[in-house]
Amino acid sequence: MSTRINQTKAPRTSIRNATEEDYEAISDVVVDAFVHDPVYNYFGSLKEFMPKDKNTKEKENLRKWSKFLLSLCVLSGGRVVVMVEHSVEGEGEDEDGEGRNEGERKERERIVGFAEWLPPNKRPALWHVRTMFKAGIVGMVRAWGMSGLLRCGFEWLDGTERTMLKAFRKRELGNPDATWYLFQIAVIQECQGKGYMSKLIREGFDNAPGATFTLDATTASSRDKYAHVGFEVVGVVPLGRGKSNSKGLEAKGESAVGVDAYSMIKLPNGGSR
Predict the structure, then answer these.
(1) Could you tell me which residues belong to the region Disordered (predicted)?
(2) What pTM was computed for the model?
(3) At residue 100, does pLDDT exceed 80?
């Protein structure tokens, strides 16, 4: 008598350029991965965490934000790539233990992560009015209000730009806009810890060998993951002091400590100055 052991194979993965047909799936990844992100909570003026198991107005606003950023990246000439898991429907054995025919198998792919890169000197700015309108800024103002626009468009962008510029001047690195900027990256929670984020980032490195890369991390956890692939913190950007707690939720008094974002850089060949 023999015992048959079913083993689950790790799915095959690949990274490819995103198409318009992938955009909705990219938004799904953002909502899943950033549902409790403190900086995004602060942008949305949330009073409590969004539930993971049901749709809410706040989740829909987060989805609008993801589509706005994606549109900005594409309109600015950026690169968008997706991490895909491949599986085969019908793979395995039937009830009699016989292998299934090749014709009964069908490959299926699932987008589980993505990365959006802005090339050197392609950063979008609020005064690029035409681009902002085409990307959907009106919808974002309706979703998050003027407070959300001020928080992400001025407090966040101005803060990160000043921090990065100060760091570049101190190290005599030139203009931070002349770098590849990781605009947004995410992997669904189910697949985190599999090294997918590192693969997405290294694909970006391979696309521009010898380049300098920059990003802004929204949590200490993501900061540490970026450090693992060669980025280093060059400044901390405080957000929401006196307005939110450390989770990005509305707060007052002693608990309104705000949240921190981390400006990071990776120099060519892991160098430092």
Answers:
(1) 87-106
(2) 0.90
(3) no
